[in-house]
Every structure is written in structure tokens, then in C-alpha cells.
Amino acid sequence: MLRSLLLLFLRVLRIVLANGAAQSATTHTSAEPKRKRATQKPSRYSAASRQSTQSVESPSDTTDGPAAPTNPTSVLDEQESAITLDAQKATPVATSGDVQPTFVDGEETPASLEAIVEAKVAERLDHFVERAEFDASGVNIEKSIASASDFVSAATIPDEPNYDGVAESQRLDAHEPESEREVTGVFSDAEPSLFAAAPIVAPSSSRELADGDIQCSESTTNAIANETQSSDVSTIGVVPVAGRPPFSDGDQGTDFSAEERRESVRGTKAISARSNVLRRTPRREATTEPFVGLVTPVSDAYSIWNRAIIRSALQHSEAGDEIYLSITPSVLAATLNDSESTFLSADEAAAQFIGAVREMYQSRVLTHARKLETLRRCGSDGLPECVAFLALSVLAAYRMHTDEDTAATAYYKRLDELLCCGISPTGMPLGFDGDGFHNLWAFLGAWLSREKGQRLAMPHENAGTRRFLALPLTHVPLREVDIERLPTFFEWAGYAPGEHVASDALNAALVHWVRSYGGFTRAGNDALVDDRKSAVLAQVAQELASWDGSTTDAQGRRTAPVEIYLHWRRRIPILSYLPRRPAVFPATFDDGDHILDAGQDGWYEPSEINADESELLTGFSWETSVGGLTFVLRRHGSEAIAMAPSEFEGPISHGALVMGAPGAVVCADSVLPQVSPYLERITGKRCAHQPAPGIRAGWTLISDVRPVRRESPPPGFETLAIESNVEIVASGGLRLGSRRAWIADAPPRVIVTGYEPGDEIRLDDARVTIDDDGAIIDDGRLALPGSHVIKVGHARYRLDTVQPEVAASLSERSKEADLQKQYVVALPAGCWTIIGSHQSDVARAASDGTQRSILKACTFRPVWAISVRPRGAVVRRLTSPVPYPAPFARKTVTWAMSAWANAIYAAHVRHPKFESEAGAPEFANATWMAYAQVSKNIKRALKATRR
Amino acid sequence: MNGDTILYWMTHLAEGSWQTFKDAVERLATDEDSGKLVTSIRYHLSDLAHADFFIGGSRRWFTRPPVLAGLADRDAAVLVGGRTPELVDTLTSAAERFNCEVVIERYGARPSAIRVSGERTRFSDIAATAGIRFSENHAYALCGGLRPVSQNIDRLPLETAPTHWTVRSFDFDSMAMIEGLHRNSACEYRPRHGVPRWYVHTKQQRLSPLPKRDAIYAAAAIRGVSLLTYEADDQRLIAKRVALPPEAIVRIACLCSGRPPRVEGDSVYFENVPQAVGGLLCVAAGQPLPKPGTQTTARSGL
């Protein structure tokens, strides 16, 4: 009933709207000056509009040539398909903001336009009917009607176009790669064929261009071409707008996404240069109000990722900090590992994350009329539900410039690859819209500000035409091509995987590296020196936290460092090589001289050092190839090696000594006079020296080095500098794999290093103290099952204590064991026939000349082993008690039955000698007779069969 | 140190590298000699079928599934494979419910043994209640997986001797390692860094890779040296302390009694080994089959 009423109402509206559209067209034609833009909201139900599309002139009919840019037009509509009016002919022309026009040989056909309008009308009608039904089912029919009325109001033609005419020359994309040269061109009119011949002018002259000319950089045209997935830029028409470049962002903030630009250029090309109607709407204010309504619940997997990403983003920040969602595959892996104690490789983590968000997007966003708005709310855990989705949008941005199949800057194409939902006519993934996307970021920003007192990193207001794209790009200033270079930087800086480096120190090192070695691509280097620097540092810090220690050299070889590990056995120090084992490295590293097996996750097993003096001094490199890949374990030469606390029992080599942490130094004897006084000064005591174990001569081990005061190291010994990063290291205990989880009976010892005296150390929000070794005195709290969080200043470390469970794989193996029953028999050398109680249970066993005895496995339970020899037979009983034979009742005799009977019969007629390995043989005589009787029956049956 | 904690940890993980096991034991060891303790716990876990080590030449351990293993003494069973405190509690409760008794036998720093005694017909019910499998005659069931070391020699791939590695051989006269490569013997090659490899030097003077114990028994089979004794009257298997049988054989021998072997002097005694199982073990070790009701004694075949 409600549906019928609403349909009737909408039909009436359609008629009214059709009349209105015709009137408006006439009004604009007469009232607007020739070059003034008129914009019209769509009149979807207008019959006139459909008729009007029949009279669209072809571009060839309307183009006046390059010298006459008198009617520059860009027909743009952000949200809805529009009917634009030809200013000269007063002919309504259908263009599309979100409806893709169809082309025949590059030209839009009237028929296709009509079809588009028809489809759009139907789509919108269904939409309102759907909303009406929804409202009627639970809310208010008036609301539906009001909503429909709003739609109709919006569809009416405004009296005055709202284009402000403000010119603005701007860079299309602040994040363009270095490959995209900024060459500015002036294109006159919209004649595509003339673009190639357009004169080149300096960017600064853009504001001086005459009306009708546009400034369009090469990168702009490239970007447009990329985003339209077109290989031929010249086929794209760009319609000049008086005094301003196309697709630019005015002061009042017209939102033109890349796809919107694409739509505009396509539509313009089809319509002609004389169609100079531009509709601009003011930039909408972002909505931060939570969405209220019925939504599909998100999956557990999505909730886990959502929670993990929020925790990860907030863990090293304080009130007032700027928060970045720097999401890359390795960051995802580290995030999940840290938050949920689940260890996955970077690729696995990314795949799981994408799958979780994709499932959520398809089940919630695509199925709801309000699409992205449904994510603008907090879940039952009080956290914004949009975080994981926004993180996915960041991941899509990170993947730009990564493959040759897709243009480097095609963002929405990559977003669709992740969401797998298909591209809508707007060029965006289905269900995606720019404003809704912006609102989600704004909502998250408001939540962070309100709940945590923190600021979400957002693009500048003048982000330009890529306002929506700038949102995720803000969080990944370094793309994959730059991120891949970071391991080289980490190795150069001497950082250890997972290390947390203070922002200032990281900045200094990064700038130094970029200046010395070129560092990133040009775009990456630019990001480091402009206002995106803080984002770059946040991203680099995240990558360092998730780095596995491997690098790839110029030859494509994967390399990993070999650390030095000091531990004690019966109070005797032992130095070992401890190679790192990134996930890609083989489980066994074998270069002929060195065989190293995978040890604790991320490491090979330590191998005691047995080296001469020069090995550590000059460094070494061990290389092996597996499956066509070359893997290298290497250690650079050094005269002095600093060691710091580690997850192992003793310290391992480190880029520097750590303030307040028990460490050690191994150095060549030749530099001992310089190193020893320095260590005495920074530790405030005389450190114990002894010859380095495992090194034949010329090296000294200085143990118990705990820096208590800061001092610059002697020149050339920067590796012995003192760093004061706060580090929380869990050492000892029984760890459950790579997870930060320990068994309840054996919790770890948590060591805090690099903290300042005033720093507060908290375990589960309770203040704790530390002992002389820097270990937290937890009073047994870490042994209690559950999650525990240690906080020291900005540093945060979460670990779980769990009760042991039987691993699932053990249960599976137990089931397999049930299926694998096999019996085995030991027999003296010779030829034997083994038989069971059933007539088909027969097997043969024979020894070769060298065997002293036989071991024979069979699938049935063996009862007798029979050996018929020239001088008699031997029957060996194999089980006790002996089961009676199964009765013979079959008329047909198989080969196995025949063999079974023949063996027993042949032994029986020879009066066999009985042996036993399972008790006294005489007790089995009666059962043997039963077997003999069954064998006779079988032979009789066999004989009868032959007859 | 409580060895049970190590077993709980292994049960939770199901498998891991040898280094993680070694580290785990060393972390829990206090003032004891952690090196010896690692070896002691490793063999205890293997002998009582809690875990497998170095399977297929790997440097890894694998926890075995929890099973209530019936012993040769028909009124007793032991819990083998992995276990957790919760599983032990459940098993104890189930045993009480079915009028059986659970005894925890402790072996110092090594994991304890959970022994169930009572009416054998109730064992399957107890196991089912605890959610685990009951194996009627577990020692004999494990014999199904035995492969004679002498058979293995012929099937093994032949390898060339590693270069630049030092080599030692097991001498059957002195029952000790001697430097150099000797014919028809078990030999150990040691690299400069990393783990050593064991080979058996065959009659064709070629090297076949085998685990240490298997290599010694394979060499003994080639040379006709007896290293195992089975006493049918006492139902016990006796091995030399310096030349213990391969781990699969020791495990089966231990599971006949549900206890680790008893060490006396230079010999190691495995008790309550039925003659059928004893024969299988001897043959699997490349030793002659004991005669029924008779006693075979170790002798030098050289």
C-alpha cells in the first residue's frame, strides 16, 4: 500500500519536474550571458529531458576551432547526473557526474544518453521506493516523502549558477612521482587535436591567461590519462574555464575527484566546446555525527583488525600528538602481532586484513542504502568502526606506483582491487563516495580529539583537486618504491629489527642518509623536507618496528646480518655467531662450510665462534643459493662491537650501548687503550677484561658494561656510543613461538633500558620498580594468565600469559594414528608364510643371504608363521592366545584363500615342529588342528571348483 | 626445575626447533648443568613417547599426541604424548570415576610419569572421558613402525665425504670414538661451524647418512657385533651404555614397563619386555633373533 502511494506521488513529481525542466531551460537560455555557466540539477523524470537528448549536436557541428574559445564549458556534477543546457541552442544536454556516458568511436550518441538518463531515473526511483519501504517498516512515512521532496527540490534548476569564477592555478597532485615532469601547457579551447601543439608557458603565467585558455601541466594530463586508464592523453578533452584551470578547487571548495574530472572531460568532449555550463556546489562541511540506524554487524576478523590498528596507532603517542595510519603489509603484520599476539608474515597479514575489510564492505556498506555512512559510528567496543576501512584506503594509496598494469596514480583502481566490488560509473568503487569518505576521516579525527586528545593527520585545506585522495596519501607519504629502500637505511644506521628510535634521532639519521646516499625517490626526498616530514618519520618508525632484518643488495641477493651473542655456561662466557633469519631465508643455511638450522623464530641457531683475529676485524660473508635465490649472511668488520640486552639469555651485538642496560663490548686488543678508558668513564667503574672466547688471539671481551653517564665515544668508535631509547625487552621464560605470549608457569623477565630516572614504569597500570639489572619486579603478576601491558614513557609493551592447551595439530595426528595400524613380525632367516585367522590373511617373508633375521610388517594380525623345508616344516606361533580360524562358508576360493590353505596343509601333512615366541607352544595344538581342518575344507572347495 | 613445564610448553606448541628446546630447558635450569639437563630431558621425552626429535634429519622436535598407553603389565597404563595440567586433572578425575588409581612418578628435573592402574577394561572409558585415545598394547603397536637398520643401509643414498670436515669413527673394540675414518664403522664428520653429521661406512667403502645410534647399530650389523642382549627368563633387554639402540627401539622397550631404562654400571636395562617384543627389537636393531626360551648374550663378533 505504502509503495503504491509513493509510486503515485513520484509519478506526479515526475510530471511536475518535466515541466519545470523545460521552463528552466528556456529561462537560462534567455537570461544567462553567453559565457556564463548555468548548472542544472538533474531532472530525472523529465520526458523533456529525454527528448532533448535527441537534439544534441555533434562536436563537429559546434566547434568553432582553436581560435574561437568563446564558449568554454566544463560540465561537472559531483553527485548526480545532470541535464546541462546548451547555452546557444537552449537544448538540454545530458551529462553525467556519476553516470558513465557511452561512446561510439569516441562520440557520445543521443541514444546512449537517453539510455543513461532512463537508467538513472529508474535507479533513483528504486532508491526512493527502497527508502520509503525501509522507513515505512520502522520509522515514518512522512520522512520518506520529505526525503523524496528534498530530492525533487535538489533536482530543480537553481536560479543562479553558484560558480564563483575564482581562478586558481594549482598543482594537481602534490605527491606526484618524480617521473611525472611538471611541464605546463596552455590549451586553447577543447579541441583535443590541438593539445599536442599547445604552447608551453611557465606556471607563473597561468593567472595571466586569457579567458578561455587553461593551464594544464603535463602531469595533470598524465594524471587524467592515468585515471581514465587511457593510453592516449590527447584523446581527452579539457574544457577551458575562464581564468581558472579545469578541475581546480575554488575558494568555496568545489570537490572534484579524479573521476569527476574524468567524467567532465568525457562529457565535454562529447557535448562540444559550446556547452559552457558549469555547475559548482560549495564544499560540504564534513559530518562528524555518528550514523544512527540499523546496520549489519561487522565480523570478528574486522573487529580484531580495527582494534589492532587503533591500538598500534596510539601506542607510542600522547595527548596532542598527531596520529598517522601508516599502513603497509609489514606494519599490519607487526600490528597484529603486537595487539593480538598472532604472528603472520607481511603478505599473510595483508591478505587477511584485506579479506576482513572486503567482507565487511560487501556485507555492510554495499547492502545499505547509506553506503559509507554506515561506518561512521562506534562499535560495541567503543572504537570507531571505520578505522580498518580507512586503513585499507591507506594501503591502496601505498600500493600506487607499484605495477605496470595500472597507471601509477590510479588510486581508485587500486582501492577496487582491494575491495573487489567493481567500479561504479563514477570511476570509484561501488558504494564509495568522496564526501562519505571524507566524513569518515573527519569522524575518526573528532573521536581521537574527543577521546584521546590527539589529532588525526589530515591534508591541508588547499589539498586541491585530489582532496579525497589526499586523505589516505597523507598517511603514506612514502610509497612502496621508497619503503623498499628503508632496510638499506636501517642497516646503514645500525638499527636492530623492532627497535624504537626517538623521532629526533631518526630524523637526523634519515636526513644524513638521504644526503649521503640519495635515499628515496625524488618524491620521497621531497616529502622528507616539506610539511609531510612528520608523516615520513612516523612511517619510517613503523617500518623499523616491523623490519625483519633483511635487505636486498644491488645484485638481488637477500642479505641478513650475523650478530654476536654472549652467554654463559657454568659461568664461562661463550661467544657465538647468531645469524638473523628473515622469513624468506631457507630453514637450513648451508654454504658448504657452515650449516645453520633455523632456531628461534627469526634466527638461525647460534654457532660458537671459532675464528681467527681477522674474521671479526674484516668482516665475512656466507652465501648460499636455494631455488634460484641467493641468500647472504654477513657481518661487517669492526674493531669494537657493542652488545645490549636481547630476548636471549645474554646480550647480542647492537648498534650502540644502551644507557642503564647491562651490556658488553668485544674489541680488538689494538684498540683496547682507547676503548677501555672510555668504558670506565661511562660506567664509572673498571670493567672486567678477558680474552674473547672462541677467537684465537687479539680480541678482548669486556663484560658487565652498564653505561651510567653520557659521553661521546672516541673518534672512530661510534658503535660504542650510548643511546637512550627506552626499550622494553622480554627475556627468558617459555615463549609460545613468535607470539608475545608466555606459558603461565614460566613468564619472562622484563627488562627496561634507556629510561630516565623520572620515568614512571607501569605494569597493568600499577606502578612497579626495577632491580639492579633493569628487570621489572612484578611480584608474580606476569605469571597470572591474561594480558599484561608495560608502559615506560612513550614505550609500551604488551605480552600475554596463557595456560597451555593441547595444540590442535596434535589432535589431528591422534586421529591419523588410529587409521595407521600395522603389525610386525620378527622371524629367523628363511622363507616364511605368515597367516592370520581369516582365510585371506596371508603374507610371505623371505631373507636374503646376508640377513640373520627378518622383520615383516603386515596389515592383519599374524597368528602363525609357517616355513616348509625339505626336512620338515616349522610352525611358529606369533600370538597368544591363538584365535580360532574364521569358518569357511564360501563356495568360491580366491588366490589368497588358496595360499592360506596350502601353507597350513603343507605344514600339517609334514608333522611340523612348533615354535613360539609368545608362550608355551603345546597350548596351541588344538587351535592348529582347527586351522588344518579349515584348510582341508578350502582345498576340497578348490577341487570342486576345478571339476 | 620442573620438567613438566617443558612438556606443557611443548604440548602447546606441537613442534619447534632444537634450539628453542635447548633454550627453554636452559632458561628453566637453575644451578644445574644445563647441558646435561638438556640431554637428559630430551631422551626422557623421547623414550617415554612424549616427543620426537630430529625426525627425518631435521633439527626439530615434534610433540606426540596424548595417548593412554597400555603396558605389558596388563593392569597398568601410562599417559604418553603431550599433556597439560588440565588434561592430567581430567584424567585423574576419570580414573577415580572408574575405580582406577593415578600415580604420578617423579624423575627429578625430568617430566613425571602419569601411571594409571586398575582394571584394564576401564582404561578405554577413562581415556574417552579425558578425550584422548587408548592404545591397548602400545609397545607392540609402535613396533609397526619399526624398520631394521640393516635394511636401511641398502636403501640409503650414498654421499661423498664432506671436505674440510674433521672425522671420527666409533671403535667397537674400545667402545669409544677414535680419530679418522675406519672401514665398516659409524663415523662422525664435524664442520667448523654447525652441527656434525653421522654416516655409516659401508662394505663398499661408501658413506650413508644415518642418525648417530642408527649408524652405530648399522655398523655393528655389518661387522656382526652383538650390542643387545635379551633375557627371556627375566623379560629384559640389556644394552651397552655407550651404544644405546636407536630411539625408536628404546622407546618401545621403555613403553613395555612405562618407565625409563635403569642404568647400572656400563649397562642399561629395559624391564618387562615380552619375548615377542624383545625379538622384534633385536631384529630391528640388526641383532640376531633371540631363541625362544633361551638366552642370547652379547659377544664381540670381531
Uncertain residue segments of chain A? 20-119, 128-281
Indicate the structural class of chain B: alpha+beta
If helices are DSSP runs of H or I spanning 4 or more residues, what is the number of helices of chain A? 24
Sequence of strands across the biggest β-sheet of chain B: 6-7-5-4-8
Distance between the termini of chain A: 88 Å
Shape annotation of chain A: extended
What level of helicity do the residues of chain B show? 25-40%
Derived from helix and strand composition plus strand pairing, the structural class of chain A reads alpha+beta
Beta content of chain A: 15-25%
What is the typical, i.e. mean, pLDDT of chain A? Answer: 70
Written as H for each helix and E for each strand, in order along the chain, the element string of chain B is: HEHHEEEEHEEHEHHEEEEEEHEEHEEH
User: What kind of sheet is the major sheet of chain A?
Assistant: 6 strands, mixed
**Largest interface summary:** A-B, 64 and 66 residues
**pLDDT < 50 runs, ≥5 residues of chain B:** 293-302
* Ends distance of chain B: 45 Å
